[in-house]
Amino acid sequence: MAVYTKVSAEALSAFLARYDVGELVSMKGIAEGVENSNYFVETTGAAVGGLGPAGEHSRTRFILTLYEKRVDIADLPFFLGLTAHLSHQGLPVPAPIPDRDGAALQQLEGRPACLIEFLPGVSVSEVTPALARAAGDALARLHLGVEGFSGTRPNTLGLAGWEELAYACKAQLSAIDPALPALVAEELAWQRQTLPADIPAGIIHADLFPDNVLIQGGEISGLIDFYFACHDRLAYDLAITHAAWAFDDDGLYRGDPVAEALLEGYRNVRPLTAAEHAALPGLQRGAALRFLLTRAYDWINTPPGAMVTRKDPMAFARRLRHYQLAS
Ligand SMILES: Nc1ncnc2c1ncn2[C@@H]1O[C@H](COP(=O)(O)OP(=O)(O)O)[C@@H](O)[C@H]1O
Ligand SMILES: N[C@@H](CCOP(=O)(O)O)C(=O)O
Predict the structure, then answer these.
(1) Same domain, 139 and 200
(2) What is the pTM of this model?
(3) 34-50 pLDDT, tens per residue?
(4) 104 and 138 housed in the same domain
(5) What does the H/E/C string look like for 264-292?
(6) Any ligand 2 atom below 6 A from CB of 241
(7) Domain shared by 234 and 263, yes or no
(8) Which CATH number fits the domain that encloses residue 24?
(9) Predicted complex ipTM
(10) Is residue 290 lining ligand 2, measured as CB closer than 6 Å?
(11) Which residue range(s) make up the domain with 192?
């Protein structure tokens, strides 16, 4: 369960008093997620224009996020500005809620915090070709939708970041699996000598896993968790999304129907250039290595008492081997 910081009802009530959202009705820590602390929050809703037909305020739901771990406070204006922009573009992206003074970024229980629009739907748990196609379509629309957004953030989890993570994990990688040190070293060497392709770049989501896509009635109702968003090659985002969707939780390939549907869904909205198409296999290897390394780092460094389910690094070792064999 990803609740690193406990929020008391008293502190939350005082926090909500800055907004026009009524009073606190209920709060609940959210089990899913690994990066930040998230709560479902229900309030009585703003009493705009008097009470509702039943003589009561309509209840309103929000997400409360407290930023932890990898999120750099200096990046929060970028993340919140990006989600506000995408929501404004009509994409199903949760908008940050400003308080009465117009400030979205706050402090709560000593952490940076934000009240965020609640989107309906449930995270994708069963990947089908139809959902993979919808995810590809949504990713391409995100890439088009970020045009006009002036914020930027470098990708801190590119090659230099992978090298740092590998160095930090080094002595303990073999405790996860005896084959990991060689796999990581070999792939880092390959990535180092593979020149980055000169292909279209922009702001990417960089973590569009099935659990970050909400579905309602078979349609995408939400794209969430933009806290790895950064400037990088658009095809790298497609490579990440492929690595996330085309394999199951154990890292076994789901098969061509899912993988092809994802790529087709993307290309139907934003066709790939020939150079992007040629770069994709190498970018997929890089994507698998990136998540292998962050998961390995977390596997080794998650504090024993943390309410979080660690994610298996070996599921990305299997993806990496798949992509190595295919490229
Ligand atoms: N705006 C939102 N609307 C509805 N549910 C949300 C929203 N944001 C997050 N959630 C829920 O919270 C869970 C964890 O959020 P996520 O952003 O993935 O956390 P983390 O950043 O810790 O990985 C999601 O799986 C989803 O169930
Ligand atoms: N998607 C990453 C971890 C980040 O977790 P998220 O819940 O924020 O998507 C992984 O699977 O390793």
Answers:
(1) yes
(2) 0.93
(3) 789 999 999 998 755 54
(4) no
(5) HHHHHHCCCCHHHHHHHHHHHHHHHHHHH
(6) no
(7) yes
(8) 3.30.200.20
(9) 0.93
(10) no
(11) 129-326
